[in-house]
Specification:
The chain has 124 residues and is mainly alpha-helical. The chain folds into 2 domains: 62 residues, Winged helix-like DNA-binding domain superfamily/Winged helix DNA-binding domain (Arc Repressor Mutant, subunit A, Orthogonal Bundle), CATH 1.10.10.10; 54 residues, no CATH class. Helix content is 66%, strand content 11%. The chain is built from 6 helices and 3 strands, in the order αβααββααα. The chain has a 3-stranded antiparallel sheet with strand order 1-3-2. A hairpin with a 2-residue loop joins strand 2 and strand 3.
């Protein structure tokens, strides 16, 4: 399931805040985007069709929430990028990211720790 940048803003908000009404979403996003209530309703309808959000009625108000967990969507999107652009080769993807992104000493240390942990698990 692919989501657009606009849908990503909405689903990130739902992951962060939980269940929200359309008006609450409008209020939260007006700081970043100048979207109308109708635009947000259109995004939410499209996201419902994709199965990424659902809602419950409380009185006459719909409260939307994310269907998928953030971790599940990140995993799926990452695998898609890995397969589409790097032929499924993690080393190629990490190499590309290292060259294209400013890596700090802290990032390098974190990567070393991760590799050491993976080596230990592989030996067990």
């Amino acid at each position: 399931m692919k989501i657009t940048e606009s849908e990503e803003l909405i689903i990130n908000l739902l992951w962060e805040k939980g269940s929200l009404s359309v008006m609450q979403i409008v209020q939260e996003l007006e700081k970043e985007k100048n979207w109308s209530k109708q635009s947000i309703i259109s995004f939410l309808k499209r996201m419902e069709q994709k199965g990424t959000v659902t809602y419950v009625m409380q009185g006459r108000t719909k409260f939307y929430s994310a269907v998928t967990k953030k971790e599940d969507m990140v995993r799926k999107e990452t695998k898609g990028i890995l397969n589409r652009f790097f032929d499924g080769k993690l080393g190629s993807m990490v190499s590309y990211m290292a060259k294209e992104t400013k890596i700090t000493g802290e990032d390098i240390q974190e990567l070393r720790q991760l590799l050491e942990k993976l080596e230990e698990e592989d030996r067990d």
